[in-house]
Amino acid sequence: MKRSANAEWKGDLKQGKGVVSTESGALANVAYGFGTRFEDEKGSNPEELIGAAHAGCFSMALSGQLGESGLTPDSIRTTADVTLDKVDGGFAVTKVHLTVKAKVPGADQAAFDKAANNAKAGCPISKLLNAEITMDATLEG
């Protein structure tokens, strides 16, 4: 399986602008730039897109882990907070914190925690990132 996305950038780093698109068309010419990445300007940025990918990947992985225990979630809501820090030689994504809230009928806390930790470690996007990945996972009643 192979998926594709592309980006086009025009201009210098601070004044230039770019767009990103996906092969599926789910994203089409989504604008980004220096201001949306390093300042508070409205618009997208690579870290936000990584967060969306990680939250989506993790939620699917958690559903799969729960399914292996015979549990089906009513809902899994995941937020991925991606931290971009200035480090020696430039910038790096250093951390991702996942905040997960799930409604899973019949799940006890131990089974949920095990599934959440397995999903955090096993999700392909988690494996891709060279960053500290932390998590707060809440099983809701």
TrEMBL record:
GO terms for biological process: response to oxidative stress. GO terms for molecular function: peroxidase activity. InterPro entries: KH_dom-like_a/b, OsmC/Ohr_fam, OsmC/Ohrsf, OsmC_Ohr_Peroxiredoxin, Peroxiredoxin_OsmC. This is Osmotically inducible protein OsmC. The lineage of its organism: Bacteria, Pseudomonadati, Pseudomonadota, Gammaproteobacteria, Chromatiales.
